[in-house]
Amino acid sequence: MWPRNQVFQKRNRIFRKVQIDYCLTGLLLNGYKITIYTEMYITSNEFDIFLLPFVHIKHTIMAGNITFTMIKPDAVAQGFIGPILTKFNEGGYIVRAMKYTRLSQLQAEAFYAVHQGKPFFEGLVGFMSSGPIVACILEKENAVESFREFIGATDPAKAPEGSIRKLYGSSIQKNAVHGSDCDENAVIESNFFFSRFERF
Ligand code: ATP
Ligand code: MG
Description:
Layout: E1 7-10, E2 13-29, E3 32-43, E4 49-59, E5 66-71, H1 73-77, H2 81-90, E6 94-101, H3 105-111, H4 121-128, E7 133-139, H5 143-151, H6 164-168, E8 177-179, H7 183-193
Antiparallel strand pairs: 1-2, 2-3, 3-4, 5-7, 5-8, 6-7
Helix pairs in contact: 3-4
Bound molecules: adenosine-5'-triphosphate and magnesium ion.
Adenosine-5'-triphosphate (ATP) is lined by residues 115, 120, 123-124, 154, 172-173, 175, 178-179, 181.
C-alpha cells in the first residue's frame, strides 16, 4: 500500500506529493458518486515522477431529493408508526435515516423557531415535546414538494381522502406528520437530528 501523506519515505527514497489531478468527478450512478483521480509524486532525486490512480466511490444523497419528516407524538401514541412507515414506502420514499426520540421543550422551540410569536406556537411546542416522535430523512425525486402533497394540508379536515394527515391526523395541531417546506429547510432539519454517520 502507498502511504497517503504529503511526504513519505519508501524504498530509501523520499516521495513528495506535488499535485492532485482530478480526471473525472461527479459521475452519479444510482446515487453513487464516483471520482477517478491521480496523485502526482516526485522523488528526492527530483527526476522520477509517479502517478498514482485512485477511484473513490461514495453514496451521495442529491440535494433537492430529500425531505425531512417526523411522525408526531399524536400518531406515535396511537400506534400509527407502522402504518405511516408503510405509507412512506408505498409512496416511493426511501428511508435514508430514522430515529425514535423525544424532543425537549427547548429542542421543539428551536425546531419550530420560524413560528415564534404566532398564536399557536406555545401549544405547538408543548405538543411536540409531549411524547416520542420518529424522525426520518426520506429520499425521492422532488421530495419536498411531492411529500407535502402526499401528506395533505396542515388541517387534516382539508387533506384529501387517503392522505396521511386525513387518515391519521385529528386536528390542525395534531396532524400526525411533519414535512419540510423547502430544500434548504430539508437540509437544516435533517442536520438538526442526524449526523452524517446516521445516514445511509
Ligand atoms: P409542518 O411544519 O409540521 O410540516 P405545515 O408546514 O403544514 O406543518 P406550518 O404552518 O409549518 O404547517 O405549522 C407547523 C405546525 O404547527 C403544524 O403542522 C401544526 O402542528 C401546527 N399549527 C399550524 N397552524 C396551527 C393552528 N392554526 N393551530 C394550531 N396548530 C397549528
Ligand atoms: Mg411547516
